[in-house]
């Protein structure tokens, strides 16, 4: 089966903006969206988003905002001027927080409204981790609850493990984006991810986008690793 590389987001997990831009330039003929997380954003600021956009690519700005509603709304407004394609907040911040984030994204005057996503349950967590936080649910059930709230708040989609894709679709329907970071090729180590699938399995399950970082960016030959992503 042939898979669409337009559904692949490459995570730039480095604090070095020069290294990040080198990866963008190396892969941009096959990849159109790159993820900027806390590490790179804190080191380089909003300018890194603009630089990636200048390369003709899009940015998933993965800052996972989680605060009181007004603070998150202000943060969303501040980020939009940089020009992200996607932006995320934590669904566990609650319905009001997500609603305020959506209103801020829609009301911002500078830049184009980004796709607004809600983080459900981090892929580094399993049922034992949830129990330690006194959350008496399996990850799948907690993801379903948070996805429902995100949909109710009017967000565009969620970030979740590929293992919960089917459950999310059953809960909120098809007209809702699912971005899955918990993917690892068969030839790569799982690292700190716990609830994972291969890239091919995630897309087969119905993910709209998959996020891949170290298996490609830390490879001796990132282009070669990218070409083997679905093997």
Automatic annotation (TrEMBL):
A single cellular component GO annotation: cytosol
Signal peptide from the UniProt entry: none
UniProt xrefs under Pfam families: OMPdecase
Molecular function GO terms recorded: orotidine-5'-phosphate decarboxylase activity
Enzyme Commission (EC) number: 4.1.1.23
Alphabetical list of InterPro entries matching this protein: Aldolase_TIM, OMPdecase, OMPdecase_AS, OMPdecase_bac, OMPdeCOase_dom, RibuloseP-bd_barrel
Record-level GO BP terms: 'de novo' pyrimidine nucleobase biosynthetic process; 'de novo' UMP biosynthetic process
Residues at which substrate binds: 13, 35, 62-71, 123, 184, 193, 213-214
Active site: 62, 64, 67
Top-rank EC class of the record's enzyme: lyase
Pathway of action: Pyrimidine metabolism; UMP biosynthesis via de novo pathway; UMP from orotate: step 2/2
Domain of life: Bacteria
Location of the Orotidine 5'-phosphate decarboxylase domain: 7-229
Subunit structure, interactors included: Homodimer.
Family indicated by similarity: Belongs to the OMP decarboxylase family. Type 1 subfamily.
Protein name as annotated: Orotidine 5'-phosphate decarboxylase
Annotated organism of origin: Tepidanaerobacter syntrophicus
């Amino acid at each position: 089966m042939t898979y669409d590389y337009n559904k692949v987001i490459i995570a730039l997990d480095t604090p070095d903006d020069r290294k990040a831009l080198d990866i963008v330039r190396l892969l941009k003929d096959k990849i159109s969206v790159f993820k900027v997380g806390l590490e790179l954003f804190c080191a380089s600021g909003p300018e890194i988003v603009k630089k990636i956009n200048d390369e003709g690519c899009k940015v998933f700005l993965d800052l996972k905002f989680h605060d009181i509603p007004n603070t998150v709304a202000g943060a969303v407004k501040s980020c939009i001027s940089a020009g992200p394609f996607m932006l995320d907040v934590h669904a566990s911040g609650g319905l009001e927080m997500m609603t305020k984030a959506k209103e801020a994204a829609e009301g911002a005057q500078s830049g184009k409204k980004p796709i607004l996503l809600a983080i459900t349950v981090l892929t580094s967590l399993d049922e034992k981790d949830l129990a330690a936080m006194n959350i008496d649910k399996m990850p799948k059930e907690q993801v379903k609850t948070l996805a429902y709230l995100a949909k109710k708040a009017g967000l565009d989609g969620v970030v979740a493990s590929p293992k919960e894709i089917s459950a999310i679709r059953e809960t909120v329907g098809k007209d809702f984006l699912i971005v899955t970071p918990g993917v690892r090729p068969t030839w790569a180590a799982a690292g700190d991810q716990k609830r994972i699938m291969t890239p091919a399995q995630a897309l087969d399950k119905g993910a709209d986008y998959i996020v891949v970082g170290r298996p490609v960016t830390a490879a001796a030959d990132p282009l070669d690793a990218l070409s083997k992503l679905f093997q």
